[in-house]
Specification:
77% helix, flat, 315 residues, mainly alpha, 14 helices
């Protein structure tokens, strides 16, 4: 697999997407962790000091990389795609959230520098970020029992309390509710797009597998067409493997669109005919009015010239 990825990356530099980069990282770090770089590792099986943290990162990334395969599955994949979209939405607003965290971290660092949680700026940033999630620990901050009697846990008590109240209002309440609202606001659209994205990834995976097959196998085994039978049902295991629910929804949507187009064409033709009939009725009325007007004029001319009296004498 590693050689295959290397050959594909050499053929096409755009191969290095997120999924393939994670695959390469997992392969390389796994080899580095299991390789013995000395006689001590070979005899005892122990790892170097840099191999243990690298192994921890490798295990975590490997399990996270499993999501790239799960999202191609019929039922679980849609939730992975939804998580990816929500995570992208969070990244868009993470810059604003980070500015708030930095602002309150500097304030806590200046007011509570004597405490171990805020002893230096990196600790203050991490502690403030953890407090944003709701782990405020008000008692440990303002009523710490491990301080000597002659030292105060909070030197600037009232200022720190007011600063803490403002932090609670802005970060755990406003910011967190903002993130939840952004994640839930367009969840329906995310679900609809997730199905399409998952189908697109399945198509991409299928095309990549077809490229690896020889031409003779591809000609005989690759399915060119597929017949959709939305009313036909199969057993549960087969439906899970083939994702018949999504295919059935697509077939029903296509059928509804086709039937909707036919009905729409009939309605359009009917409206056209009704419009022509109405136009013909209007034309007939106009012709009748013109004929009545012409008859009136001819009658008036006949009376004025005496043709009416002559006709009466002949009768």
């Amino acid at each position: 697999t590693l050689v295959n990825n290397a050959l594909q990356s050499w053929r096409k530099m755009s191969y290095f997407g997120i999924d393939n980069t994670m695959d390469m990282f997992c392969y390389v770090t796994s080899i580095l962790v299991v390789t013995d770089f000395g006689s001590c590792e070979n005899e005892t099986g122990l790892r170097n000091s840099w191999q243990w943290p690298l192994g921890a990162v490798c295990v975590t990334v490997t399990w996270l990389n499993l999501l790239s395969l799960i999202r191609k599955l019929p039922y679980l994949g849609i939730y992975v795609v939804m998580f990816t979209d929500v995570f992208q939405t969070f990244l868009k607003v993470s810059g604003v959230v980070f500015l708030f965290v930095i602002a309150f971290s500097l304030g806590f660092y200046a007011l509570l520098e004597n405490q171990q949680y805020f002893g230096d700026l990196p600790k203050a940033i991490i502690k403030t970020f953890v407090m944003t999630s709701g782990e405020l620990e008000y008692d440990n901050i303002f009523f710490a029992e491990d301080f000597p009697i002659n030292l105060e846990a909070v030197p600037y008590a009232w200022t720190t309390r007011m600063f803490f109240i403002v932090f609670v209002i802005i970060m755990p309440i406003i910011i967190m509710n903002l993130l939840v609202g952004l994640a839930v606001d367009d969840i329906k659209a995310v679900q609809e797009n997730a199905v399409l994205q998952r189908l697109a990834m399945q198509v991409e995976l299928t095309l990549n597998v077809e490229k690896l097959l020889p031409e003779c196998l591809r000609r005989n085994w690759v399915i060119r067409t597929q017949t959709l039978e939305p009313n036909r049902r199969s057993n549960m295991i087969w439906s899970l493997l083939k994702d018949e629910s999504t295919m059935r929804n697509i077939a029903q949507r296509v059928i509804s669109e086709c039937s909707g187009d036919a009905i729409g064409n009939l309605q359009a033709r009917q409206d056209d005919l009704l419009g022509k009939v109405a136009s013909m009725k209007s034309t007939v009325r106009d012709i009748q009015k013109e004929m009545e007007r012409t008859n009136t004029i001819l009658t008036a001319i006949a009376i004025k010239t005496g043709l009416r009296e002559l006709e009466e004498d002949e009768i």
